[in-house]
């Protein structure tokens, strides 16, 4: 992984609109929880799903308390990941429709 990849990803998230971000906490050279806090500060409506090998209860609580909408531990079942993504996006679109009406 290039040294500047985490910073490039953060810059892309600042410049573009995304419905959902899947965030791994084990990012080389940068703390994933700090990335999450930065995202929450700048993109409050962004849905964030943490996908991480950190599977202790304390890790999950820390990620959710830092602002993640969901947390899935590795290894994971792809069908479960897809269902969680659908759920987060469904909630996102429901919220948007409520605001428009």
Automatic annotation (TrEMBL):
<dbReference type="Pfam" id="PF00072">
    <property type="entry name" value="Response_reg"/>
</dbReference>
<keyword id="KW-0804">Transcription</keyword>
<dbReference type="GO" id="GO:0006355">
    <property type="term" value="P:regulation of DNA-templated transcription"/>
</dbReference>
<protein>
    <recommendedName>
        <fullName>Response regulatory domain-containing protein</fullName>
    </recommendedName>
</protein>
<feature type="modified residue" description="4-aspartylphosphate">
    <location>
        <position position="24"/>
    </location>
</feature>
<dbReference type="GO" id="GO:0005829">
    <property type="term" value="C:cytosol"/>
</dbReference>
<keyword id="KW-0238">DNA-binding</keyword>
<dbReference type="GO" id="GO:0000156">
    <property type="term" value="F:phosphorelay response regulator activity"/>
</dbReference>
<dbReference type="InterPro" id="IPR039420">
    <property type="entry name" value="WalR-like"/>
</dbReference>
<keyword id="KW-0805">Transcription regulation</keyword>
<dbReference type="InterPro" id="IPR011006">
    <property type="entry name" value="CheY-like_superfamily"/>
</dbReference>
<feature type="domain" description="Response regulatory">
    <location>
        <begin position="1"/>
        <end position="89"/>
    </location>
</feature>
<dbReference type="InterPro" id="IPR001789">
    <property type="entry name" value="Sig_transdc_resp-reg_receiver"/>
</dbReference>
<keyword id="KW-0902">Two-component regulatory system</keyword>
<dbReference type="GO" id="GO:0000976">
    <property type="term" value="F:transcription cis-regulatory region binding"/>
</dbReference>
<keyword id="KW-0597">Phosphoprotein</keyword>
<dbReference type="GO" id="GO:0032993">
    <property type="term" value="C:protein-DNA complex"/>
</dbReference>
């Amino acid at each position: 992984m290039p040294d500047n990849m985490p910073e490039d990803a953060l810059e892309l998230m600042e410049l573009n609109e995304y419905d959902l971000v899947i965030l791994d906490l084990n990012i080389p050279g940068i703390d994933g929880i700090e990335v999450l806090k930065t995202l929450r500060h700048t993109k409050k409506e962004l849905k964030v799903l943490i996908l991480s090998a950190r599977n202790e209860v304390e890790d999950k609580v820390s990620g959710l308390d830092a602002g993640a909408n969901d947390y899935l531990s590795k290894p994971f079942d792809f069908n479960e990941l897809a269902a969680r993504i659908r759920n987060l996006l469904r909630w996102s679109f429901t919220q948007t429709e409520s605001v428009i009406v």
